[in-house]
């Protein structure tokens, strides 16, 4: 079992051994060295690991730690890639991931926005890479959060990713919900995070794309299978146009009735493919697809589909970013029996 307190320590020297006591400043340790915060990071890590062992009922002697303590080598491309590959390997082998903080409280919005709001950590591109890979890999292995509210999850379910608060208590981030479009102030994807070396942008983007393309088909298949004959919730799962073929195949295969695909990255091509599927699909009765970057061509394809599809009884979509085509599309939506709710979203309820 691996249990990695995930640290991005950019000043540690190479080949510094881990010990059971705080590492002194002379060894390159970027921890507090004096005052009331002396060795705070070390103390927070110890408290968090002990809390996790207690809460999960683990045997301390069976727990293995991987601490992301030293920086990835930056000056040699080959050595740098070795470091990146090792980070990915450790992240995917780990059962738990802990992020130490100095905060007394974390995530004022509950568990909804995820680690991107962790101060000093969540906005950084490479930090996002590590928790992004860990979280997606965990959910692909079946670590799905069972929700007991909009944001909170049933304890013991979901991704085992935690922020350690200053007192050693753990704040869970149990679900994968990445809003890459119209997100909370800043997009939550790794490629949208801050990078000290701008040249890393292409590498971070490539890692992100590879992980998403591995993740989405697995989650689409799993959620549609679990929702066979009922509801499949794929909200904020980073689905883009290239994944729609797998999505439509799964919806048809498992005869999904209610499909939630809001807050993804679906554009016109994705909307057109979904509209084409709905010309013959007769199982889907509810399609929720707000907050996707669908423009005029995609919206018009959906409207055209409504003229022949008589199975769909509920449709939610946005029109406020359609530009010059907005009036035409909205008129057609009205003629198709749709009305706009108080949030500006068009809803169809065909009887």
Count of beta strands: 9
**Largest β sheet strand count, sense and barrel closure:** 6 strands, mixed
List low-confidence stretches: 1-20, 182-186
Order of helices and strands: HHEHEEHEHEHEHEHEE
Quote the average pLDDT. Answer: 82
Query: How many domains make up the coordinates?
Result: 2
How many helix segments? 8
Radius of gyration: 23 Å
Query: In what order do the strands lie side by side in the largest sheet?
Result: 4-5-6-7-9-8
From the spread of the alpha carbons, the general shape counts as elongated
Helix residue percentage: 25-40%
- Helix/strand-derived category reads alpha/beta
N-C termini distance: 55 Å
Q: How much beta, percentage-wise?
A: 5-15%
Could you list some keywords that capture this structure?
Leucine-rich repeat, LRR (right-handed beta-alpha superhelix); six-stranded mixed beta sheet; 9% strand; 2 domains; 351 residues; alpha/beta; three-stranded mixed beta sheet
